[in-house]
Amino acid sequence: MNNERVTLSMGAGGKLSEQLIEDVFLSLYGNDILNNLEDAADLHIDGTHIAYTTDSYTVKPLFFPGGNIGTLAICGTVNDLAVKGAKPVALSAGFIIEEGFLIEDLKTIARDMCTTMSTLGIRIVTGDTKVVSKGEVDGLFINTSGIGTIIPHMNISSRNARTGDDIIVTGTIADHGIAILNVREKLGFVPVVQSDVAPLFNIVERIAHFGNAIHVMRDPTRGGVASVLNEIAKASQVMITLYETAIAVKDEVRSCCDLLGMDPLYIANEGKIVIFVDSKITQKVLECIKQVPAGKNAVVIGKVEEHLSADTPCPVCLKTSIGIKRFVPMLEGDPLPRIC
Amino acid sequence: MNNERVTLSMGAGGKLSEQLIEDVFLSLYGNDILNNLEDAADLHIDGTHIAYTTDSYTVKPLFFPGGNIGTLAICGTVNDLAVKGAKPVALSAGFIIEEGFLIEDLKTIARDMCTTMSTLGIRIVTGDTKVVSKGEVDGLFINTSGIGTIIPHMNISSRNARTGDDIIVTGTIADHGIAILNVREKLGFVPVVQSDVAPLFNIVERIAHFGNAIHVMRDPTRGGVASVLNEIAKASQVMITLYETAIAVKDEVRSCCDLLGMDPLYIANEGKIVIFVDSKITQKVLECIKQVPAGKNAVVIGKVEEHLSADTPCPVCLKTSIGIKRFVPMLEGDPLPRIC
């Protein structure tokens, strides 16, 4: 009997998460769809091409500047479908509620979920509610799963990055993670950092006509932009260079990061997409994205340089403002639990 | 501000659960699919007819005689699809793990999930893993959602019960709930009661050719057979009579129920289906069900008598062994949390 135990780092979206998932889950029920480890599965059911995804939300605190666990549960799942090039169609919702939870708070959360869904024209079609005794869950956890229909001619996969691709991020990074930390750890940073939590299908819809010239889309949540880029580089067997000066970080977010000694590249976002595009269409794609409010600060942050070389310790490099290159590996330690 | 709080009874699958769901969720995002409150939603996506369902599993203890939280998470979701007349196709799984959880236990649970899935030829295609700090969740909760394809010519709904229908239950009742209580409360009943947790699609497959002569199917989990029959009676606007002498309960389960002062009709099952059929085909359906091991003790337990009369306090009646009739209302109090 092995006495190894699950640690918080194993849930942080970095290298240790990857190891736990591979060791416990993929080794047993890995299959050609699950093994891709994309934000959503890509399925054909009786000739219909759908995307399918799930996420459990355990964010703490439940209410934070810019949103709450409910808006997060809708946006997070809708965005996992959107970055697979899918139009969200139907959601499920499972609530695990601690005995004694205020019904008024539950109603506020449900109402905000509803508001977010109505902007997207989607609905919850199946649900489940469990109540457990005081102390057996911290307040409220929500799981949402979602089904979307994959837009014809889109073929998005983390394995599709190609040499020469430009890498776009649809706005400033690290807003969500810092917003949560600021309130949870009572850091007192002013102005209060707002989470960027937002549904992003409208961005995808706006660029869908570029079809398969859009190669990769991911939403950089747990583990941040750095971890997602490492996953893409590994899946596509390419090397990536980031331009530090191009990466947009809000002043108040940067101040928090500096004081906490944290790198914004590793902090979770809930309203951003990382997009790899054929460099021939980069400017046109950017123009389209900027027409959507959630994408107005979209910017090119890097480039796919070449195929992965066997002797590279890390496939993602950052070119700093003073011209030095440094490696940007997968998130290793520093667990930030319950960010989403 | 209303200070009302969520109670354990609101999660027990009875009247108070129904009220919470109507009050908080349906009032806000009710829609023609969700309002049916069936075990699975019935959806058309680009011409494909699917069933879609979700459940969160919080059973305590995680390991119990006859199964564990993993087998329950697969069977429960697969069965919710099956009773909608759907062949399970793909599952999602979301794990919320407490820091310090034994990886060996996680592997055992994952392995048993895998074994159950392989008997059904289905797979998990998308997943999520969260780790929260010690004390923020009690061990492990699992959410599974599932997609199935609805079998042509089947038209199963809680609203389809008709006067004259026979009501079949596919075996003994109350096994799962009593199995959990016996180990959790250390009641020490011998022989140890085994949970009936099992996937039931093979039963549905065996009777699918009866098409729309099968009117209703439900799996009587939380709230037991009594609560499910009340839901069906209400949805179909009919009155139901049960024959007490026909209802099969294992001796050891009945002893536990007697000693605990509990009625087996209100105890959860995880391997049984309640089926309403046109009485013309009852015997043929029973023969088919009995060919499947999980259905070998199938029996007719009651009948749909007539349309619901406005002045009836309760639409479900039990004819006792001595010929007296008593009402069998929805589960009201007596919360049994974390049975599933």
Describe this structure in words.
The structure is a homodimer of 340-residue chains. In chain A, 28% of the residues lie in helices and 26% in strands. By secondary structure, chain A is α+β, with helices and mostly antiparallel strands. Chain A folds into two domains: 8-150, PurM-like, N-terminal domain (60s Ribosomal Protein L30, Chain: A), CATH 3.30.1330; 158-327, Alpha-Beta Complex (Phosphoribosyl-aminoimidazole Synthetase, Chain A, domain 2). In chain A, the strands form three sheets. The first copy, chain A, has a seven-stranded mixed beta sheet. In chain A, strands 1-2-7-5-6 form a five-stranded mixed beta sheet. In chain A, helix 2 packs parallel to helix 3. Chain A is globular and about 55 Å long. The two termini of chain A are 33 Å apart. Chains A and B meet through helix 1, strand 1, strand 2, strand 5 and helix 3 of A and helix 1, strand 1, strand 2, strand 5 and helix 3 of B.
